[in-house]
Amino acid sequence: MSLIRFQSRETADVLMLAQHATPFLEAWGKDAKAPGVLLPMDMPRAKAATEQLVQAEEAQQAQQIAEAKAQGQPVPSFEPIGLRQRSVPLLEMIRRCEGAEVEIVWGV
Prior knowledge:
This protein is of the alpha+beta class. The chain has one domain. It is 52% helix and 14% strand. The chain contains 3 helices and 4 strands. The chain has a 4-stranded antiparallel β-sheet. Strand 1 and strand 2 form a beta hairpin. The radius of gyration is 16 Å and the shape is elongated. The chain starts with a strand and ends with a strand.
């Protein structure tokens, strides 16, 4: 299992397993397998993409539950920690770095 360490001069590091960080990086339009940087000017778009990713996961899960109930099937179970919980430290890092106008880097 590999880790991705998000770093900035404004906040503490945020560590995530690569498999959990990849959806966020892809939503930001970044390559999860390469070092990268999120510039302050790109942070509003990254925040919006992160929030959309979380909402999409929750909508998909709600739909799966509704379909299972409608068909009389057992309700599916999901990972206990979803994208909403995983996004909290990243969103906080983005907000603080955006305000301070400093970049976020990973894989360096």
